[in-house]
Amino acid sequence: MTRTPCLTLRKAAENSQREFSSDFKTITNSKRLFSTLLSLAAALCAIASCGSGDAGDEASSYKTTVSGRIVDVQAESFLDLDTLTVAADDGRRYLLEARGRQHAGFLPSHLREHMVSGGPVTVTFHEEDGALVLDSITD
Length: 139
What we know:
Blueprint lengths: L2 H47 L13 E13 L5 E8 L4 E5 L10 H10 L2 E9 L2 E8 L1
Parallel strand pairs: 3-5
Antiparallel strand pairs: 1-2, 1-4, 2-3, 4-5
């Protein structure tokens, strides 16, 4: 009769170890699943953010670059550009909206200097809501 309690204890210990091992496998598998899902979500976020460029909320990731001369400058204030019209070297005119974006070194007064002097500029823009939106200017 002394063997029965030892066997019972041994079986209880083995069952407890099996249950712990099973629980550990479940936890490990859950961690792997969570890690995989988290990696997938991060990859989807990275893919979704590609092509947004420096404009941030543009409707299209297609940007166009044109060189030409400034023929008109409309300002909201001394510091804020409203629209810019550029006559491209091929003869086409582009009416570009600033939409509140700042362009370092290109205040409306500087752009008017280019317009008066006829100095060439290169503009990069994209289409958004049916309008051409200015992304960058270089001279």
